[in-house]
Amino acid sequence: MYRNSDPELCASVLDSMRRYISWIDIGLIVNDAFTQLLFELMLVDGLPDQLRAAAAGVVLAVVSKRMDPKPKLALLQSLQMNRVFRLVARDGDSELVSSVAFLLTGYATEVLECANSLSLQDGKGVSQELLNEVLPSVFYVMQNCELDSAFSIVQFLSVYVGTMKGLPTLTETQLLHVGQILEVIRAHIQFDPMYRSNLDVLDKIGREEEDRMVEFRKDLFVLLRNIGRVAPDVTQMFIRNSFASAVSSSEDRNVEEVEAALSLFYELGESLSDDAMRNGSLLRELVPMLLSAKFPCHSNRLVALVYLDTINRYMKFVLENTEYIPMALCAFLDERGIHHPNANVSRRASYLFMRGVKLLKAKLVPYIETILQSLQDTVAQFTKMDSVLKELSGSEDGSYVFEVEVALLNAKSQIHEGSLAHIGNIQQIIVAINALSKGFSQKLVTASRPAIGLMFKQTLDILLEILVVFPRVESLRCKVTSFIHRMVETLGTSVFPYLPKALEHLLTESEPKELVGFLVLLNQLICKFGVGVHDILEEVYPVIASRVFNILPKNDILSGPGSCTEEIRELQELQRTFFTFLNVIATHNLSSVFVSPKSSGCLELMMQFLLHACCNHKDILIRKACVQIFVRLIKDWCTDANGEEKVPGFRSFIVEAFATNCCLYSVLDKSFEFRDANTLVLFGEIVMAQKVMYEKFGNFFLLHFVSKGFPNIHCPQDLAEQYCQKLQVPDIAFSF
Prior knowledge:
The chain is mainly α. It has 35 helices and no strands. Helix 4 (69-78) packs antiparallel against helix 5 (95-117), helix 12 runs parallel beside helix 15 and helix 30 (600-616) packs across helix 31 (620-637). The longest helix has 27 residues, at 204-230. The N and C termini lie far apart (96 Å). Residues 2-57 form the Exportin-1/Importin-beta-like domain.
C-alpha cells in the first residue's frame, strides 16, 4: 500500500520485521504472500534502494534462522535465490548492492553448512547444486563489494576447500571454483594503492598498514597452501600465470599487482618438496624469469623487498643449477639489490647476499673478481662519514661487504686525529674488518693462506694503537676488544705476541664496565688455550684482582627496592663475571696463578671473597661456582693428610672456615630451599666437597667437622656416627 507513497515507513516496518524472525515461527514469514512480496520489493526497478535493501535484510534473516539441516535445505531451495544474483552487478557502492552482497554470502554459508551436514539420501546433492549455483556470485561479491563484518571470507573458503580434501579427483566445476578462489586470494593480498607512498617511505601510517597486512595475509596464505594440496596443478599454474603476467607487463601494471604476484610465487616455495625445489620443471621456467626480471616499479620498496626474498627462497634451485649463478649475482649486486636507491632494500640485499654466499660457497670462486668490483662503490659509500653521523649505531646492519686495504689506509691516516668524524670512520673500519674476518678459518689463515693471517696481524697491530691514542673513547675500546676476540679465534696461538700489548692497554681503564669486558676476553683466552696462557695470566691476574677487590664491596652488593641503579647493575655484573673468571682459572689447571709470588697479596682477599659468596650469595649458581673453585683448589694444592702443604695455612682454612661455614651452617640456613632445583645442584657440590676433604685430609677434617661443627647445631650422636660411616664409604652419595 505504501511502497510508493511512503517508502521510509515501509523500510521501517521491514527492519522491525527482520528483528523478530530469529525467534518467531518461520512459517509466519516463509509463505506465498510474504516471500513473493519480499522478492518483488527487491527486484522491481524504480523503488528506492533503502526499501529494496530492507527487503534483502528480511530475507537474510530468514536464511540465517537456526534450523535442522533437512528442513533448512528445503527452505533455502524454496526461495529460488538465483533471482537476485543479477543485482550485485549494479553500482558496487549502492545500499542495495551491499545488502544483496550480505544476503548472498549469508545464503552461501547456510547452503555450505547443509552440504557438510547432510548425507546423499537427505539431500547433499541438492545442497551441492545450490552451492554451485551461488558461488560465482559470491566470488564476484568477495572481489567487488563491501561485505558484512560478520562474514569471514577466509573461514567460508576454508570450509569449502575442506569439502574437496580426500576426493580422488575434482570435477570441472570444482576446478573452476578453485581458480576463482585463487583470484579472490590474489585480490585480497594486494595493498591498498592509497597507502603506496606511505609504504614506500615507511612513515608511521605506512608501518601501521604494513603490520596490518602482514597479519591479515597470514590466514590467506594458509588457505593458499590448503588449495595447493587439493589442486596442486591448478594452483601452480595460477601462480605461474600471475607471475608471468607481472614480468611481461608494461608500466601500467601497478605496484600492488606486481607485489602480490611476487608474494604468491614466494609462498609457492612453502609447499614444494625438496626435489621440486632443486629440479622442478615449474622452477626451471620461473626462476630464470625471476632472476632476469626488472619491473618498471622496481624502485618501490615493497616490490624490491619481496623480489629479493623470493630469490633467496629459491637459492637451493640455483645451488643445483649453477648456470643461473651469474643471474642471481646480478640481481643481488645491481640496482635491484645492494645498489637499490632505498637504504632499507640495500641493507636487506646485503644480508640476503651473505646468506646466498654461505649456501653457494666454493661455487662462487669463478665470480670473486666480479663480486668485488661490483661492491667497490658500496664499500666506499658505507665508510663515508655522512652516513655514519646520521646512523652511527644502525649502520652496522649493512656491514657484510668491504674492501679492507683501503679501510686500513684510512684508519692509519686518521688515527691521530680526535674529531667525531674520524672516530666514527675508525669504528666503521673496525666493524668492517671484524665482519670480514668471520669468513676465514684458523686453518686457512695460518696454514693454507698465511698471507691472509699476516694481513690480520698487521691490522691488529694498527688497531692496538687506537687504545693508546683514544684510551677513553668507550665505543672504540669496545670495537677493538671485539676485534681481539675475533683474532683469538681466527689466528689461534699466533695471536700470542700481540696479547701482552693488548691486555696492557685494555687494563688502563678500571671502570666496572671495562673490567667486565676485559674478564670476558681473558675467559676466552683460557678456554681456548688452557695452560698456554699461564705466563700471560700470571702477569695480569694480580693487577685485575686487586682492582676488582677495590671496587666491589667486601660483603653483599645492595639489592631490593630502590637499589636497581645503573651503578649497582654494573657492580653486580662485574661480580658475576669475576666469579666466572676465577672458576675458569681453577677448572683449567691454572690454579698455580693464584699462589704465584706476584699474586701473594691477593690470596687472602680471594679466599675470604669466595668463602662469603659460597655461604651467603643470593644467586645459587654463583654459590655453586664458588664451591666448585674450592673443590678444585683442594685437589690441586693438597696431597694427603700427612703430606707437605703446597700452600701453607690452606688446609686449616678449608677445614676450620670453609667446611663448617659452607658445608654445614649455610645448608641449615632457612634460605637453603631444597625444593629448588638449583639449590639441589648446589647441595650436590657441597656433598662432593666433603668427600674430597675427607680424601685429602682424612681424620683431620672428620674430627674437626664432627667435634666442632655438629655440637653447635645440636646434632644427635647417632646421626653424627651415621655421617662418619657414610663419609668413609667410597662413591656413596649422602642422603638426609
